[in-house]
Amino acid sequence: MTTSQPIDLRSDTVTKPSPGMRRAMAEAEVGDDVLDGDPTTRKLEERIAALLGTEDALFFPSGSQANQAGIWLVTEPGTELLIDANAHLIHYEMAGIAALSGVQIRPIATPDGGGLLTPELVREALRASSPHVPRVTALAIENTHNLGGGRVLDAAAVDGLIRAARDAGLAVHLDGARLWNAAAAARVTPARLAQGADTVMVSISKALGCPVGSCLGFRKDRRARAWEIRKRLGGGMRQSGILAAAGLYALDHNLDRIAEDHANAKRFAEILSDSPTVRPSDPQTNIVMVDLQRDGATAEAASARLAQAGVRMSAYGPKRLRAVMHLDVSRGDVERAAHIILATLR
Ligand SMILES: Cc1ncc(COP(=O)(O)O)c(C=O)c1O
Fold it and tell me: Are 297 and 156 a contacting pair, CB within 8 Å?
């Protein structure tokens, strides 16, 4: 058992605000965002809208709430949403699509479970219109894909999906909780990967290291409706500039370093690839899935043993652990963690 701080690779949400970020938060100019606006929140929304190439954006307390608002905005109750079967929107948002938007999901299995849809899969999932089948109103895509191990839809893949959706008259919602990572990996701007989507969710509480927050980008004429939905969900925040200031700070200081997390993920997987007892994924971004190879090994037991040894990872399946690189772990931490895993799961 180690006495030093554990190396926490459970998620990129575990980062703590840095002293500089805390100062920016403390000094933020604020107002009442529900009553008549908060200037710092508005500044963040405008900055994010510009980065996403959307006309406008709204600040939300969480990615889940912004995702749900996005689906609500582009669907109608009693219709269907096409979405990959391993989407965060299906598995980790408390059935919000059904409960809040009144929409039926039509999950599309991807061949390797990696969650990356293709235009062909979307077209195959569409049924001929008939008085017996529900209308499909939208397609949801996730980039990068969390359960898929941080895999990336590049610009050509996104274009193909948008075209397939448009040909069928569908709106498109993009769950871009880690769109910053996708853009860094694909070497394009976030706006390029958001091009053509009607609603775009991005998080500031993951790769960017903020304590709280996500934004939803959309067309200007959707702002009033988006605001109404957020209020209904209990997401109207008052002096939210305190939180938005962290986002503005992060865009200035933490956006350009994301590729370091991707390089750390590669290094982590490289060290683990020597072991017969674990098989790491080949990471495209900051997430590495680690599959246990030994008969009888379970992710729950492995994760408990690793926590004792000073490395925290999440169980992501019966024999799968997830490690996520972020700005609070250095190259040295990542190498140390990989060697602890090799020694502990021998
Ligand atoms: C792909 C994806 N979408 C949405 C979310 C939801 O974000 P939040 O935890 O801020 O609700 C997450 C969170 O990990 C995620 O990985």
Answer: no
Residue-wise pLDDT for 260-272, tens only, equals: 999 999 999 999 9
Which ligand 1 atom lies nearest to the CA of residue 67? 4
The answer, yes or no, to whether any atom of ligand 1 lies below 6 A from the CB of 333, is no
Compute, in angstroms, the gap from residue 177 CA to the centroid of ligand 1: 6
Cα 64 to middle of ligand 1, angstroms: 6
Q: For residue 184, which of 144, 244, 212 has the smallest C-alpha distance?
A: 144
For ligand 1, is residue 143 a contact (CB within 6 Å)? no
What's the 259 CA to ligand 1 centre distance in angstroms?
20
Burial of 255 (0-12, 13-18, 19+ CB in 10 A): middle
pLDDT less than 50: residues of the chain: 1-2
Q: What is the DSSP letter of 251?
A: H
- What separation in Å is there between the alpha carbon of 200 and the centre of ligand 1? 13
**What's the whole-model pTM score?**
0.97
In contact, 18 and 319? CB cutoff 8 Å: no
DSSP states along 123-164: HHH-----TTSPPEEEEEEESSBTTTTSB---HHHHHHHHHH
Helix runs in 14-148, H state only: 19-26, 39-52, 63-74, 88-91, 96, 119-125
| Ligand 1 contact via 86 beta carbon (within 6 Å) | no
Can you tell me the distance from the alpha carbon of 48 to that of 204, in angstroms, rounded to the nearest whole number?
A: 10
Q: How many CB atoms lie within 10 A of CB 88?
A: 21
pLDDT value, residue 2: 45
Cα radius of gyration rounded to whole Å, the chain: 20
Kind and range of the H or E run holding 341: helix 331-344
